[in-house]
Fold:
Amino acid sequence: MNHKEDKKNLRKIYKEKRNALFKEGLLYDVSEKISDKLNIFFEDKKAKNIMLFYPFGSELNILNITEALKNKERNFYFPKCDGKNLLACPYKSKDGFVLNKYKIKEPKTKPLEDIGILDVVITPALCADKNFQRLGYGGGYYDRFFAKKNLKAAKIVIIPDDFLLETLPSEEFDIKCDIILTEKRTLER
Structure:
């Protein structure tokens, strides 16, 4: 079996596991604990420009961060698909979202011209490993975004602790994250 097939099988397994957590109501608690940890992290690191993602299906939901930090001079950004690329678009609580072709909510605002201002990019993943590899959905959107030369932001993957593996198959275009945050631990590269 090759890496592509291994990744495909792992995607199926971890989507099912995450859906089961969602159905059992456990994902809410995990999301809350991770949100609390992120709030402290942003304070400690003085992160001002933060890119989040809008949860889709059974993904972790940390959107409460935008309310918790709105009086702390934080700027929030959300991803928007543009062909095969990912753009970072500013978001304020009055701004709305629209559904993209994948039925994922995206901001209506115009994208940033300089993603170099981002301090942190919170990245969705199905699972990750202790070598800081993440397994996404297979579209490569975040890997292409992370490959941009002017992006200096810390790449943070948030996952349930049980979704942290020893190793994952990886390919040359996979870009490692800098931090893995679960409800139980924080790993920094």
